[in-house]
Each structure stands twice: as structure tokens, then as C-alpha cells.
Design goal:
By secondary structure, the protein is mostly helical. The protein has 22 helices and two strands. It has helices at 2-15, 19-37, 46-63, 72-100, 104-114, 116-150, 173-177, 206-235, 246-253, 262-286, 292-327, 335-338, 340-360, 367-426, 447-484, 504-521, 528-550, 565-587, 606-615, 618-627, 630-692, 710-715; strands at residues 500-501, 551-552. The chain has a two-stranded parallel sheet with strand order 1-2. Helix 2 (19-37) runs antiparallel to helix 3 (46-63). It is globular and about 140 Å long. Its main location: membrane. It is found in: Membrane. Belongs to the TMC family. This is Transmembrane channel-like protein.
Length: 785
């Protein structure tokens, strides 16, 4: 058939191709592939792009699979096909991963209307949610679920039973809201977990798992934060420095021509507008003139006022904690007196940030720099409040530890008295008395559960205050401004109270310190991680709705840093500060004698030594004993410090080299720009000069041989050898402005004389002299005398 003949001819042609032709065809295929890859960046019209794309794809499809020879051609075609499918799978998988990113569309919508600075908060919130999901999986998978499935049930032992005196009110709403009653004796808190070395058929070591999860929580968080900071350092550059021609790039390259949805187009339009506002603010800040002495005085004054506020808030927290310790011995407490500490800390976190922002108006920093100062000050406020709370709380813990000694003696005495009374009542010393009812056993203070309850109450009160602030302070304010503006005496939208702006610094610091409380409190209350996951999940939806419905963009919209390392730096610092009280608890304080997985031990870390002695081979215990020797630990720490110093020095050297390379690139770019400008101006001058010269070659003709027919030969035109120039191609030698004028016959040394008798115009005869007539510019110059 004709088709089979054509195929056979094609195969024979392909097999008859030489190696050079094959290589050339491969190069053409690669070139077409490169054109397809960069087609989107070509400054062409869409019709031209589609035509070229179709041609390139047809060429690649036609020749790519036919580059093999003989039997190898089919394998090559198969390999090419699989490569294409793998590339398509990777592209589809990347699109699938992008689709699976949670809340990406919500965050993009917020960014398009409020700028990258507000969107950075929601990106940070999403990152915190992901990290807490991992911590939730660790805690519930290795601590809570094993205790629920394999541990003793509720009511079997005293630590899992509500005391008889508390049972009538154990289910009251007010009691449950204070996390007492049944909440206190549940898996939410430390005291519920048993101290059995192994539980269940799997012989699960719950005390060891509890300690390892508590330490692993900090280890995982530290690893994730540092890894994220390193990743952001690679992505981020200078804050807001996009190079040259910022507005030109934004004007001509911002729009996405693949948008096919009206709502997406509106969001993109708002995003471009906001981006222009951000760049305008950056440009205004770079060109601003200021009185340096007045500015320094105002900044010193603002910092003095803020330090006074920080000291006052710390003293207030300390006073309230001491007062709450006095309230602990009273039973007739009102609701405010019970929750005074949590309310004061929440109100300080609510009132002080706006006060700091008002004082910071005196400094007139760039909005991005002002945000960092605001974050640092609120960080100092929260940190001072938190550590003041911790110091006062550990004072209370020490009091409970002193009280625990007497309670422990009383419980031992009560148990012996119960056995003696049973023997006396039955008059039988051989009968084993039944155990006491768990609800009647005297309980110790269980200071770990008390600390966990305080952290849970702080977290819940912070959630309540945050949500009520958004509902009342933003939503109610927006409703009043929106519906009462038509019947009010002044313009509510343009003046007071107007719509609220999204408080970036307050919300970011709220997230950071809430996470710090989770890290500290999760060791004493394993259920706190689950509460925090619910809080972050609801905050994403609630705050996205609030910012889109009740807030307006900032008056000075500014661009966020390309990396969120400032947020991560604050989080890393609060992680380190959260680690200190937990390590102090594990290494120093004795655990409670009747609650928790470490009861009955002198220190909490003794469970590790017990596991090494009983479960591991003897030589491993010996090795770990040597490894714990201070003689090895101190040199290891010194080595780590030296390694950190070396890496820091190398990093600074790389940064310096990077800065120098940037300077050299800028200088080279400036030199190229100046050279191009000078070349263009010089070319223009040359063109102007050439326009003034005669319209023929300025090069002098080649000197002819000295013969009598010089004049005749000079009048002949220069011939071009046939075939030396292409068709319809005019050849012309380069013109040099410095070459002499070929029309010049010599220097003129006398004025022109009268015209001699010669032929009349139109008459070709010569005059009587037999030569050409002399006149201005005619004939040979006269001989010199």
C-alpha cells in the first residue's frame, strides 16, 4: 500500500542518515524544546506565540522519537515517551500539592486587599497550625491514647477518682469552667497518668514515653523553627529592595494573562493597586528629609515612656499573683477574684499594644521598621508578664511542696489507722483488709496538675478575650460606622471612630506567646496541645472573616519582608525561654508522691536511669555513664561553641563577598549604561555630520599610475567584478571623516580671475587655448611663479 511504502521509505531515509545529520537533528530538537520552554517570556503577540508553539511541537513530535538507529530507535522512542509522561506527572503533582495547601485562596484574597504585611500574619498562623498538628500527633499518639486504651480505668485508683467531698459539685458548670471536678481528674492533666513502669499487653513504658514526648516536643519545635529560618534566609533578600525600575516592572509585568475568572481578576487588580501603594511608601521614605536632633529626642522620649509602661505592668502582675495566693485560703470568692490573674494579664495584652503604637507615632519610623519596634516592645511586655507569672507560680509550687510532706505523712497514718480499725472490728489478724475506697484517700496538692490548670485557664481566657475583642471592638464598631453614618453629625467613616485596621503586631505577638504557653504547659497538661489546635483552626476562619468584613487597609500600606525570619526569631527566643522552666522542673523539683507518671521517684529524670539499668545491656549503661561525665560534656560544649563561631565567621565572609559582588555588578551595569548613552550620542553627531557632506564616498580613490591619460582615467567609474556581490546588493566602502576630500585639487593661493573665452553653454567646442576654460573650480590651477 502507499502508506506502507511511505513508512518504508521514511525508515530507509532515517537509517541512511549519517552521524553528523543525526547530531544536527538532535541539536535542532533541543533548540525547539528550549523555544517551547521560554515561549511564555517572549514579547510577542498571542497569535504569533501560538503559531510558533504549534510549529515547534510538531517538529519535536515528528523527529524526537526517530533519532535512534535500527533496533535502538524503538527503545529511544519509548524512553522519550516515558520522559514526557514523567514530566507531565511532575507538573500535575506540583499542581496537586499547590491545591492541597490549606487556606491558600483565603490568604491570597486577604493579600490582594490588605497587602503582604497582613497576609504574612495568616501565613505565620498556617505554619503554626501545621507544627501544632505534629505536636498533637506526638502527644496523643504516645501518651494519651496508650493511657486510655491500656491504662487503668477511671475510679480504679485515687489519682483517677474525684474525692468524695468534691463529687456533689464535680459536674457544675462553674466548676468545669475552672477546670476542676471531672476535668481535673481526666487525661487533660498530668495527675491522671499512672506510675506503672509498663502497661497493657504490649508492655508500653508510659513514664518513659511521657518524658521523651515532653523533651521531643521542644526538640522537634527547635528543629522546625531553625529549618524554616534557614529556608527563609535563602528565599529572602533585602527588605523591600526590588532593584531598579520598580514602577516600570510593576506597570508592564504585573498582570497575569492566564486569569479566566472575574473574581480572580478583581483580586489581581486590587493586588496590583496595593503593590503600587507599597512601592510609593518605600520611595517616599527613601526621599524624606528630617531634623535629626529633634528625631533623636522624640525617640528617646518614646522609649522612656514605654519602659515605664513595661515596669508598671510587671509590678501589677506580681501584685495580682501575690494577692491570688492570699485568696487560695478563702472559700467565699467572687467570680472576679477567682479569675483576677487571667483577666489582668489578658487586659494588659489588650491595652498596652495600642498604647505602644500611639507612643511610637513620635518616632516616625518607616512602617516596616516601626512594626519591628512594636513587635519587640510587645514581646518585652508579654515576656515580662509571663516570667513574673512564672516566678510567682513557682513560689506557690514551693509552698505546695512543703505542704506535701505533712499531707503524705497524714495519708500514711490514715491508711494504717484504717487497717488497724478493720482488724479490731473483725477481731481477726489473718484476714487481709479490703483496700480503701479511692474517693476516701487523702490527696496531696499535686502541684503539676495545679500548674497545668493555670496554663489551661490562661490559654482559654486569652481565646475568649481575643474573640470578644474582634466581635465587639471590630464588628460592632464597623456596624455602627456603616449604618449610623447617614444620620450622624459628622462623617464617621473619615473621622472618629472610622473602621478599624488589622493589628499586625498585637496578633503576631499573641500567637507567639500563646505558643510559648503551650510549650511550657504541655508537659503539665497534655490536653493543652489539642485545645491549641482547635484555637488555631477556628482563628483562621474567624479572623479571615473579620479582616475582610470589618477592617480596612492601613493608611500607609507597606511591603512585608521577603522572609518571615523576624517572626521566627521571636518564636525561637520564646521557645528557648519556655524550655528553661520545664528543664528546671525535670532536673530539680521532686515530683508529687501520689499523682503523675513519676510519682515515687526522687527526680523526674530518674525514669531514664531506671530504663538504662533494667532494659539495656550493661555496657550501654557504662557508655552512657561515661558520656554523662562532666569531663566529656564540657569539651563537647566548647567544641560546639568553636564550631558555631567558625560557621558564623564563614557566614559573615560570604555576606561580605556577596555585598562586594553586588557592588561590582552595579558598577558594571552603570558603566554599560554610560557607554551605551555615550555611543548613542556619538552616533547621532556622526549622522548629523554625514548629512552635511556630499552624498558620495569620502574615501580618496586609489592613486592611478602616472601617465598622460590621467584625466581620462580619473573620469572612469570603478567596475565591480561579476559574482563578487550578491544580487541587488550595493557595496560601499566605510567612510572615514578624517580622510581628505577627493574633489580638492590643491590649496587655493589666488582669487578667481575672469572667465576666459570659451564655448557657450551647450556648445561642446573648446576655446582658443585648446584646453578647458579657466574659471572658478575649473581646470588646472595656474603654474606658480
Amino acid at each position: 500500500t502507499p502508506s506502507s511504502d511511505t513508512d518504508s521509505n521514511t525508515d530507509s531515509e532515517e537509517e541512511s542518515m549519517s552521524e553528523g545529520e543525526m547530531e544536527r537533528l538532535k541539536e535542532e530538537v533541543e533548540e525547539k524544546k528550549k523555544v517551547i520552554a521560554i515561549m511564555r517570556n517572549k514579547p510577542w503577540r498571542m497569535k504569533r506565540r501560538l503559531v510558533h508553539l504549534k510549529e515547534c511541537q510538531e517538529f519535536v513530535d515528528k523527529f524526537e522519537g526517530a533519532l535512534g538507529k535500527g533496533k535502538g530507535r524503538k527503545f529511544y522512542a519509548y524512553k522519550v515517551m516515558m520522559t514526557k509522561k514523567w514530566i507531565k506527572f511532575q507538573r500535575d503533582f506540583e499542581n496537586f500539592k499547590t491545591t492541597c495547601i490549606p487556606w491558600e485562596r483565603k490568604i491570597k484574597e486577604v493579600e490582594s486587599h490588605f497587602g503582604s504585611s497582613v497576609a504574612s500574619y495568616f501565613i505565620f498562623l498556617r505554619w503554626m497550625y501545621g507544627m501544632n498538628m505534629v505536636l498533637f500527633g506526638l502527644t496523643f499518639g504516645l501518651v494519651v491514647i496508650p493511657e486510655v486504651l491500656m491504662g487503668l480505668p477511671y475510679g480504679s485508683i485515687p489519682r483517677k477518682t474525684v474525692p468524695r467531698a468534691e463529687q456533689p459539685t464535680a459536674q457544675d458548670y462553674s466548676v468545669l469552667m475552672d477546670f476542676n471536678g471531672y476535668c481535673k481528674y481526666s487525661v487533660l492533666f498530668y495527675g491522671y497518668y499512672n506510675n506503672q513502669r509498663t502497661i497493657g499487653l504490649l508492655k508500653f513504658r508510659l513514664p518513659l514515653s511521657y518524658l521523651m514526648v515532653g523533651v521531643g516536643t521542644f526538640g522537634y519545635s527547635l528543629m522546625v523553627v531553625i529549618r524554616t529560618m534557614a529556608k527563609n534566609a535563602d528565599v529572602g533578600g533585602g527588605d523591600g529592595d526590588d532593584g531598579e525600575f520598580t514602577f516600570a516592572w510593576k506597570m508592564f509585568t504585573s498582570w497575569d494573562y492566564l486569569i479566566g475568572n472575574a473574581e480572580t481578576a478583581d483580586n489581581k487588580y486590587a493586588s496590583i493597586t496595593t503593590s503600587f501603594k507599597e512601592s510609593i511608601v518605600d520611595e517616599q521614605e527613601n526621599q524624606k528629609d528630617e531634623n535629626i536632633h529633634l528625631r533623636r529626642f522624640l525617640r528617646v522620649l518614646a522609649n522612656f515612656m514605654i519602659i515605664c509602661c513595661l515596669g508598671g505592668s510587671g509590678y501589677l502582675i506580681f501584685f495580682v499573683v501575690k494577692r491570688s495566693q492570699e485568696f487560695a485560703n478563702r472559700d467565699d470568692l467572687s467570680w472576679y477574684e477567682k479569675n483576677e490573674l487571667e483577666l489582668i494579664m489578658s487586659l494588659l495584652g489588650l491595652v498596652c499594644p495600642p498604647l505602644f503604637e500611639t507612643i511610637a507615632e513620635l518616632e516616625e519610623y518607616h512602617p516596616r521598621i516601626a512594626l519591628k519596634w512594636q513587635l519587640g516592645r510587645i514581646f518585652a511586655l508579654f515576656l515580662g508578664n509571663l516570667y513574673t507569672f512564672l516566678f510567682a507560680l513557682f513560689d506557690e509550687v514551693n509552698n505546695k511542696l512543703e505542704e506535701e510532706v505533712s499531707i503524705r505523712n497524714a495519708s500514711i497514718w490514715a491508711q494504717k489507722e484504717y487497717y488497724a480499725n478493720f482488724t479490731l472490728y473483725n477481731n481477726d489478724t489473718d484476714t487481709t483488709p479490703p483496700p480503701m475506697d479511692p474517693s476516701d484517700v487523702i490527696r496531696g496538692p499535686c502541684w503539676e496538675t495545679a500548674v497545668g490548670i493555670e496554663f489551661v485557664k490562661l490559654t482559654v481566657s486569652d481565646i475568649q478575650v481575643t474573640y470578644l475583642t474582634i466581635l465587639i471592638g471590630d464588628f460592632a464598631r464597623a456596624v455602627i460606622v456603616r449604618f449610623l453614618n447617614y444620620c450622624w453629625c459628622w462623617d464617621l467613616e473619615a473621622t472618629y471612630p472610622s473602621y478599624g485596621e488589622f493589628d499586625i503586631s498585637g496578633n503576631v505577638l499573641g500567637l507567639v506567646f500563646n505558643q510559648g504557653m503551650i510549650w511550657m504547659g504541655a508537659f503539665y497538661a497534655p490536653g493543652l496541645v489539642g485545645i491549641n489546635v482547635l484555637r488555631l483552626l477556628s482563628s483562621m476562619y474567624y479572623q479571615c472573616w473579620a479582616v475582610m468584613a470589618t477592617n480596612v487597609p492601613h493608611e500607609r500600606v507597606f511591603k512585608a519582608s521577603k522572609s518571615n525570619n523576624f517572626y521566627m526569631g521571636l518564636l525561637l527566643l520564646i521557645l528557648f525561654l519556655s524550655l528553661l522552666p520545664v528543664v528546671y522542673t525535670i532536673m530539680t523539683l521532686p515530683p508529687s508522691f501520689d499523682c503523675g507518671p513519676f510519682s515515687g521517684k526522687a527526680k523526674m529524670f530518674d525514669v531514664i536511669m531506671e530504663t538504662i539499668d533494667l532494659d539495656l545491656p550493661a555496657f550501654l549503661g557504662t557508655l552512657m555513664g561515661y558520656a554523662a561525665n562532666p569531663g566529656l560534656i564540657i569539651p563537647a560544649v566548647l567544641l560546639m561553641v568553636l564550631a558555631i563561631y567558625y560557621l558564623n565567621s564563614v557566614s559573615e565572609a560570604y555576606q561580605h563577598a556577596n555585598a562586594e559582588l553586588k557592588k561590582k555588578m552595579q558598577m558594571a551595569r552603570d558603566e554599560e549604561k554610560n557607554r551605551r548613552n555615550n555611543t548613542e550620542s556619538t552616533d547621532q553627531v556622526m549622522k548629523d555630520l554625514e548629512d552635511l557632506l556630499p552624498n558620495r564616498s569620502l574615501l580618496p580613490p586609489a592613486p592611478p599610475p602616472e601617465t598622460d591619460n590621467k584625466a581620462d582615467q580619473g573620469g572612469k567609474s570603478t567596475k565591480v567584478r561579476p559574482g563578487t556581490a550578491g544580487k541587488d546588493v550595493n557595496l560601499q566602502k566605510d567612510v572615514s571623516l578624517s580622510s581628505p576630500n577627493p574633489n580638492a585639487r590643491g590649496a587655493v593661493t589666488r582669487p578667481p580671475g575672469p572667465r576666459g573665452p570659451g564655448p557657450l553653454p551647450g556648445n561642446g567646442q573648446q576655446g582658443p587655448g585648446g584646453g578647458p576654460g579657466r574659471g572658478r573650480g575649473r581646470g588646472q590651477p595656474p603654474p606658480r611663479r
